[in-house]
């Protein structure tokens, strides 16, 4: 299986090589991310906020602890990935996947995971 040994989030994003996960150990990367948020999103992000311990890690160290997908999949349904859900793919996840190429790749990964398991 191609994703074996990878950190696949509940939504299908591959977190293994995520810049936000690597940033606490790389001050230059952290600065680059902070500058990106300032320039592209007009957000002031503090260095200590640039961290993530993955969907099944400590929520205090999760980049997006308030993520609706995380709450639905992991908290409410006790699943590791949306691909395991009886309602997959739900309309909300389909709309989420249309927002960004990375989200689209994550959704495609979930579809592949679903096909491989079933």
Main traits of this protein?
mainly alpha, globular
Walk me through what this model shows.
There is one protein chain. The protein has one domain (19-117). The protein is globular. The chain is built from 5 helices and no strands. It starts with 18 loop residues before the first helix and ends with a helix. With 118 residues, the chain is mostly helical.
Q: Please summarize the sheet with the most strands.
A: none
Low-confidence stretches: none
Q: Please bin the fraction of helical residues.
A: 40-55%
In percent terms, what proportion of residues is strand? Answer: under 5%
Distance between the termini: 14 Å
> Helical region count?
5
User: Whole-number average pLDDT?
Assistant: 88
State the gist of this model:
The protein has about 120 residues and is mainly α.
Describe the protein's topology.
Elements: H1 19-22, H2 27-41, H3 68-76, H4 91-97, H5 101-117
């Amino acid at each position: 299986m191609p994703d074996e040994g990878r950190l696949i989030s509940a939504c299908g994003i591959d977190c293994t090589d995520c810049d936000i996960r690597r940033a606490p150990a790389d001050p230059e990367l952290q600065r680059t991310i902070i500058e990106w948020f300032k320039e592209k999103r007009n957000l002031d992000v503090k260095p200590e906020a640039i961290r993530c311990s993955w969907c099944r890690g400590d929520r205090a160290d999760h980049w997006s602890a308030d993520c609706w997908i995380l709450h639905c999949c992991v908290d409410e349904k006790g699943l590791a990935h949306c691909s395991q859900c009886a309602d997959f793919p739900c309309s909300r996840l389909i709309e989420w996947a249309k927002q960004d190429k990375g989200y689209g790749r994550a959704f495609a990964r979930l579809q592949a995971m679903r096909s491989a398991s079933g």
